[in-house]
Each structure stands twice: as structure tokens, then as C-alpha cells.
Amino acid sequence: MSDKTYPPSSELVANAHVDAAKYEEMYAASIKDPEGFWNEHGKRVDWIKPFTKVKNVNYDFGNVSIKWFEDGSLNVAANCIDRHLATRGDQTAIIWEPDDPTDEAQHITYNELHENVCKMANVFKNLGIGKGDRVVIYLPMIPEAAYAMLACARIGAIHSIVFAGFSPDALGARINGCDAKLVITADTAPRGGRRTKLKDNVNQALLHDTDDVKCLVVKRTGDQIAWRSNDDYWLHEELEKVDADCPPAEMNAEDPLFILYTSGSTGQPKGVVHTTGGYLVWASMTHEITFDYHDGDIFWCTADVGWVTGHSYIVYGPLANGATTLMFEGVPTYPDAGRFWAVCEKHKVNQFYTAPTAIRALMGQGTEFVEKYDLSDLKVLGTVGEPINPEAWNWYNEVVGKGNCPIVDTWWQTETGGHMMTPLPGAHATKPGSAMKPFFGVEPVVLEPTSGEEIHEYPTEGVLCMKDSWPGQMRTVWGDHERFQKTYFSDYKGYYFAGDGCRRDEDGDYWITGRVDDVINVSGHRMGTAEVESALVAHSKVAEAAVVGYPHDIKGQGIYCYVTLMSGEEPSDDLRKELRTWVRQEIGPIAAPDLIQWAPGLPKTRSGKIMRRILRKIAENDYGSLGDTSTLADPSVVDELIENRMNRD
Ligand code: WT7
């Protein structure tokens, strides 16, 4: 922790949407009278039928139900496109920067966006997609990804984006999980100079498909691809058959807008459901206020649309605000470690939003990659996905922001739809590593982990929960409302439990300390240890596996696997490689184990429960403080594990 604070410049404060006094006033109003507050701010989006009911929320376990603006109707695509046409039809909506910097960038105006989205929506309709149907989007970072999202929204179909880095198995599970009728993909996807065979992955994912899932293919590279025998379509051919007239469907505020699969502490990923009205209000309001976005600014969020950050801050938030949003197909280190800054200079980016893992990776490459470029248009910098260490924060602040750009460290989750805690650029003096203050309507509480009692003192530490609801909150787990209630509302009754720990300092500012459950955060990507374990035990040579996180310089956390082999199997480095490749194939490259330790035995209680606390300590190379091991069935396995530990940093 550092006690130094970084106040915003007086120039920034003078022009900010929200300054310190306004924050206090608005925050107090949002907590004292949520109905009144959201009655006013709910009107920031255009309603077809205005809502008369603001909020209807029940957090009682067994009966959890969350509704916002429930009698209103609207269309998200009309809010993100049509309502801007009269005033900014010729303004750029999306700047697309391709993987290869020598290829030409695209500037797509709101008029063009309208035409492209309407046409794609008509293609979807021709393929039999209607209100409530699920469409899986498995695309690279190309404009068609945004068109597909908005085309779904326009006709009331529910999209579920699967990150293009996920394997065929992971894709197949998500297609089945939400019973999709259509998958939209591309032939191949260039990224960092390499190509991912997306259409091939879809073919594999649908190999045993008996539901006749259709597949629509964007021609991105022209690479050779294999066609399934039927139900495959080229997008460009289908587009020739449609016109650009597609009226937006009238959707109820609580109709699902999208499903996004995310990892939990147990079981397979769950489909987080966000709905239409509350989500859009939340995404657009947080985008405008957190980044202090003003008309004419160029906003760049470097996330992939496969994650919630891309949903809320590449597409829905910015476009609902009539912003110019930048979409980048590539990676931070291609062709070299200066790419982010080259793109900032080229497109005169004003707000830049990225993840700590990217900052740490670039920091290691030296300052010359940043200093080569003119970054004088930058006004606000943002970070998201994991706690940011003060060293990375300082580098971001000094080298990238030249000490002139407030850093908004935004804490939120797939489940929350948008920012929950963050400093506001014109309102708060930031502290390196602190998510600082709750956004309007968010009422964080710190609970004592075992008793669940609220702790009111400062400073303090405990588990982070939310009192009450906010418009962007997830509504359910797709097809499993029970799991929704159990995951978020059962451990601490009457609260939303985020799964994170946090500290509140003497000024009342919040510091996220990381997950308190069996979820790890690898390069800002959330990973359930249970998922990696189940991939490992699916290998014929593996008898048992336990997976934990450990501190990793670049990734934040690395994946540490304890593996017990089937009897008769010999441990070897080749087998380590084989298991790494196996997990990559089962889930995707982001899940590839960093360290694999052969474990003849795992520390278990007499009832057979693996004591993960001990495994975490050994993986952290902190084996001196294992605590009580007397309840173990066989305490000697611990000595063996310590002796052969893989992380000795
Ligand atoms: C988890 C949510 C929200 C979009 C990206 C990840 C961690 C997120 C921060 C931050 C510390 C953070 C939390 C959270 N996290 N932002 N600013 N400081 N931790 O979304 O995959 O749903 O993961 O990411 O642990 O629970 P996600």
C-alpha cells in the first residue's frame, strides 16, 4: 500500500461530468432514494413504452428475484444506433484496427452501422432466428462481431459470445448449454500474426450435433476451410438476399439480452444472464461517468468482445452514448511491444482501458516502446480484471499517462454488468491499487467471513458483499435459477456475495484483495480450478488432480496442478507436456497449466476432502505456515509435496 494520493488536474475537474461535490450528492441520493434516483437516470435510454415501476427486488434465499423497469419496453440496437442517426449519422461509431498494422483501418459511421446491423438481422431472420432464440457468436475482433451482437438485439434474439480462444469442446458445451440455433464464426482469425482456425473448431464442436445447428461464416482471410454437409452459409452470400430495412423489435426491460458463460468455484461454467433495460442503463451510465467520456472523444477498450468488458465497454456502453469506440483485432506485442501506443497515437485515443496483466507485460519491455509515440490525446486511463500492483500502476501513470491522466481502477464482474467500484476521474484523488469508491446505487459492505456480520469500523478487512441491487445486476443463471441463488445469495443471507475479499482503509476507500473462493484469475481471465481439474482427470493417465493459483509476475496468478497418476504410469517431462497440451485442447490456451507437480498423494481429511489451503501454501512457496495439519488422514503426504514443490521463488 502507498499513502500517496493523486488528485486530478483542475482542468479535468472543471470539465468533468462529476466532481467531488457532485459525487457525494449523487451517491447519497442513490442510496437514500434508489427509486427516485433510477426513475431519473433510467430515462437516459429511449423507451418505447416508458416504465412506471422502477425496482422490484427480493434477495431472500429461495425466492431471489430481481427486476428493474419491469413494465417498460425498449430496443437495445435502436438505442445504440437509430437514436443517434439524426444528429450523428456521419460520425464514426466504430474504428476498427486490424491485426496487421499495414492493413487499412476502417471507420464505420452510425449510418453504416445501421445498414450493416439491419442487414445482418435480416440474414438471421432468413435463417429462422426470432425473439428469444439463442445465437452463439464465435468471432475474432472484427466489426461483424459488433454487428452480430446488435443484430441479435434488434430482433430480440439472445446472443452468447464464446471467446475465440476457447477450444472446440468448450465451444460445444456452450452451444449445447444454451441450446443455440445458430453459430456465427469466421473462416480463420489472424491474431498476433498467427491464425486460429475458427470454422474448423466449429465443425469439431458440432461433430455430433443432432439439433441441426446452423453456421454462418464471415470470410475474414479467405483461408481454405472445410464445409459441413449442410446448414453452413457464407455471410456475404446471405447478405445479397436481404435489404437494409429491419424495424427494431419491442422488448420488455426484463427480456434477456445476452448470456455469457463464466467460471465459478464449482462445476462447469455458468451462463450469466443479463436483461435489456437495466443492463443498458448501467453500461451506458458507467461508460460515460467512469471514463468521463465527452462527445467527440475516441474511446478504446482493449478487451475482447468474448468477455463482459468487451460487451459493456466496446459495444453497448459506448454506442448507447453515441461514442466513437475503437475495436482492435490484434495483441499488445505484435508486431512489437509498442502496438498499443502506436494505435493510441494513430487514432488519437482519449480514454484507454486495459488490464494489469498487459501493463505488466509491456512494462518489462522498456519505456522506449511508449516514448516513441505521441500520447498527448490521452485524458483518462483505466484498468480492470485483477488487482493492480503499485509498481504497474506507477508505470502506467508516469510512462503512459505522463502524470496527467487519472487512472480508474474499476472493480466489477461478469455478474455485475458494469463498474461497481472505481474512482471517478474528476472526483477522487486516486491511490495506486485501490478501487476507491462505489458507483451510484452500489452499497458495498465488508462482512466478517465466518459470522457474516457487517463490520462498520475503518480500517477493516473481510468479504465483499452488496446490500441491495443495481440495474446492471445479472438476473439468473441460464436454465438454473437454483444455482444462481446458491452461488450468490446463500453464503451471506440478504446480500449479493461477490466472491472477493476486500479491505476498507482509514479513509473508507476500498481495496480488492482477490478471490476468496476456488476461482483463480489468470491474466485477468477467470478460471475455475474445478474446470482445470476435470480436464486433467479426463486424461487416461490421470487418477486425481487438485489445482490452485500461485503468484505469477506477469499473469497475476499462474495455474499450479497437483497430479496423481494412475498406478503403473511413470511421471516424466514428456507427460507434463502432454497434459499441458491436453488441457489447452480441452478448455483453451488460457487454461494451460504453468506448473505440474506429481503428487503420489494429496492432503485429505479423514472424510476425503482435499485440504486446498495446504496446497495453496505449498504452491505459494509459503510452506512454513501450513497451520494445523492434524486432521489429515495421512500427514506425511505434506512433507513429500513440500520436498518436490515446483515454485521456489
Ligand atoms: C473478478 C471478475 C469485470 C471484467 C473483467 C473480469 C477480479 C475485476 C478488478 C479490479 C481487483 C478485480 C475480481 C472479480 N477483478 N476487476 N479492478 N481489482 N480485482 O470479469 O471474469 O467476471 O472476473 O475479477 O476478483 O471477482 P470476470
UniProtKB/TrEMBL annotation:
| UniProt superkingdom | Bacteria
In its keyword annotation, does this UniProt entry include Hydrolase? no
List each copy of the Acetyl-coenzyme A synthetase N-terminal domain by range.
23-80
Q: Which PROSITE patterns match?
A: AMP_BINDING
Record carries keyword rRNA processing: no
Catalysed reaction, written as an equation: acetate + ATP + CoA = acetyl-CoA + AMP + diphosphate
Q: For the AMP-binding enzyme C-terminal domain, which residue ranges apply?
A: 531-609
Q: Which GO terms describe its biological process?
A: acetyl-CoA biosynthetic process from acetate
- Binding-site list for Mg(2+): V537, H539, V542
- Annotated ATP binding lies at G385, E386, P387, D409, T410, W411, W412, Q413, T414, D500, R515, R526
Entry-linked Pfam families:
ACAS_N, AMP-binding, AMP-binding_C
- What family does the entry list? Belongs to the ATP-dependent AMP-binding enzyme family.
HAMAP family xrefs: Ac_CoA_synth
| The protein's name in its UniProt record | Acetyl-coenzyme A synthetase
Origin organism of this chain?
Roseovarius bejariae
